[in-house]
Amino acid sequence: SDAWAPSNLVETEHYFEDHPASHAAALRAGLDSFTDKDGDGTFTAACVTQALDRGLITMDDVDRAVRRKLLTRLRLGEFDPDGGPFAADAALLTDAHRRTARDVATRAPVLLRNDRGLLPLAPGTSIAVVGPLACDLFEDWYSGTLPYKVTIADGLAEAADVTAAEGLDRIQVGDLGVFDVADWGGNVFTLRAAALAQSSGAGQPPAPGQPPASGRFLTASDDGELTVSSPGPNGWVVHETFVRDGNMLRSTATGREVVTDWHVLTDGVAEATRAAAEADVAVVVVGNHPLINGRETQDRGTLRFPPRQRELVRAVTEANPRTVLVIMSSYPYIVPPEAGTVLWTSHGGQETGHAVADLLTGTAAPYGRLPQTWYASETDLPDIFEYDIIKARRTYQYFRGTPQFPFGHGLTYTTFRYSSLRITEEESVVTARVDVRNTGTRRGCEVVQLYTRGDPARDWPRRLAGFARLTLDPGETGTAEIAFPLSALAIWDVDTDQLTVYGGDYELQAGASSADIRLTATLTVDGPAPAPRRLAGRSIRAADFDDHENIILTDETRASGDAVTPAAGAPMPAGDASFPAGDAPISTGKAGRIVFRDADLGSADRITLRVAGDPGTIEVRYGEKVIGVANCPGTGHKYTWADVSAPLRLADGGPGELSVTLTGAIRLASFRLTPPDAG
């Protein structure tokens, strides 16, 4: 389990009445390893023992879990006399490890833009490396500890004449001291003690990559004491971040507020801008701190850069049009339009500086590709709690807008031409071959991507079927070969409860990204055609809908099963005014609706619905016409289920669209349509 998750079932989620019941349910569901209460195993042992005593589990349940844990440890060689097959891998910081770290950090970055061919930089170029991430590397959330750090300023300093400036404001904060302040967005800041004695002057940073001699951060202890003692932001609860409100400084961890002066000694943006103006090229390094905002338990409220970083990019670009924006981040941003040359890297480990320097100077050529869509606007994204990626048009599979940078995007220092897409199928494996020619002047790597698209009218997703890398010299032609099984075209059929490859024509698209398609071909697949859903005479799970409005999924029981229930939202539209008086359709109240498309109701004249929870009303429509209304008196508990029935007025059984509207705090697990001859 995740840390503290077993006890959370009772203490925060209130899903079970006590810990023995929750532990028993988790064990029966297949959980073998309980991570709870930090290192205190007595809590788990006591809960499992009580569950045994109460008959909630048996020793067979316990033995099964223990057996699986021991087998895993056995297979890993933990009990081998020599330490097992992985014992020899315990050596750290070998030359091989350094090479691997550098190689991985070089392969991963993505060149997003290269305005006027600024990259790669010419030999002898003087470079101003500026920005809050220019002289530091961070460990990402859950990453390993960095054994050493080669920052971007460090890496470039080995290859060029470099001037470094972090672009951080240096401030006097009351009697707390002098700090270099970093803006991480959302009015959240960190304050690092400035090393004035070691600086070449007030506001001047140390040598590239070297933190101030102090380098300690202002931190708030649990009892509210403020000290300059932390090596940096860290921990599940970060005690080194503060919110500023005028002369008020508040700890994000403790909530303690301190009234203090905030006096700017050095304008960091102005300092960075001066350095950029005096260099041939400016490299601005911005991004996120993985432990601040946008991490586990903390969702971002914006795709935009923190205000001070945004100001830095704008000012440096104005001062030196030959500016490279390096984004080092855990997630996408909206890239400022003035940034003409942009390289993105994740927090790539200890060799990030060498890797980025190799890419910027042309020692290596970029060939990373985006593993996600970078949206152009926050309005392109739905509410963060909308998990239905089809309805929300999320990800490259369903998004219909124009992204800032599409899934699979990535540039390099040469160009490629595609030709002759050939498709073959043998033993249920499809193979695509496409010829690619390096039409540029440099050796480079092209990532040929193959996408599949089924019937757009049915809202089937567009999918990446595979990709192939080709490294080619100028003028050289190679053939990319990408194979995938026919089963990769399968769609989940909620009617048959299985993955199904439907017959018909599929478009295969070969290109350099999901938005840069160079060649297409048609693949004709034998298989069943999508058929109307025959709903009459069998139980239909409510969660197997084709579409929904204002609905959330919930549980049928604590152990298994799904149900639907209305979420908070606007009233549904008024019903059919022609419906007979006394059985008026629903027109007021909070409601949710599930939809079953292409539904064949046969000659059904009655619907029976399995419901639980509070009283409510269920309206059934076929097309635009209301064909039935069921009044549900309530069952008294969300896990107490009962059947309610209502007659249906059905003139034409389909196929058409069936919608079921729930009003009130009512839960629906399933329904059954009954034809007249069923009794």
Q: What can you tell me about this protein's structure?
A:
Strands 11-10-9-6-5-4-12 form a 7-stranded antiparallel beta sheet. Strands 1-15-14-13-2-3 form a 6-stranded mixed beta sheet. Strands 25, 27, 30, 32, 33 and 35 form a 6-stranded mixed beta sheet that branches. By secondary structure, the chain is α+β, with helices and mostly antiparallel strands. The chain is 15% helix and 33% strand. The chain contains 10 helices and 36 strands.
* Assembly context of the chains: single chain
If you compute it from the alpha carbons, what radius of gyration comes out, rounded to the nearest whole angstrom? 31 Å
Mean of residue pLDDT?
Answer: 91
Q: What is the strand tally?
A: 36
| Annotation field: number of helices | 10
Q: What helical percentage do the residues reach?
A: 10-25%
Strand line-up of the largest beta sheet: 11-10-9-6-5-4-12
Distance between the termini: 49 Å
> What kind of sheet is the major sheet?
7 strands, antiparallel
State the secondary-structure class. alpha+beta
Residue runs with pLDDT of under 50 for 5 or more positions = 197-213, 570-589
Cα shape: globular
Strand % is 25-35%
